[in-house]
Write a structure and sequence with these properties.
The protein has helices spanning 3-36, 45-49, 51-69, 93-103, 121-127, 148-169, and strands at 84-88, 113-116, 133-136, 139-143. By secondary structure, the protein is an alpha+beta fold.
Length: 172
Amino acid sequence: MSEQQEDHGDRARALLGTLLMTAGSVLAVLIFCDRTGDGLPRMPAIWYSSRGIHLALCGALFVLAALLLKSPPGAIPPPLFETLRFYTRRDCPLCDHALEVLDGHRSVLPEPELIDIDEDPELQQRYGDCVPVVELDGQVRFRGAVQPELLQRLIDAAYQRQQSGENNEQPV
């Protein structure tokens, strides 16, 4: 199946799941109004004779919607980088800000390995007051601060490399 067909299938599944979730929500509100006696609009006679089915139907709608909206296995791409080392020290506001920036990209970055340079004299010598230091796949990428624009460029470049690598691996 082509990537375009998969994309159309994903969109259709998402739309159907959203519609089922909406229908289940409307039904849940109607059930609540009926059970509490709060302003339920005039309903057909079958509504009042089949009250036992309402909850089962509502539950089935929610379950079907959840199944349709659930991401298929393997849909979450692996991180674009193998390792992320974050050199920091205690009471470092720049480090806190840098972690927030990195956290905004956690879907494509691996879990950071936090390294306190105050615990290692060699690291104190190497980095001094230039923390935070961000090392991606063994290469220092940021010192002193993490610029969101530059991080996004690194992520975009890694994504392009990954895409071109996947395209090269496919049989011709």
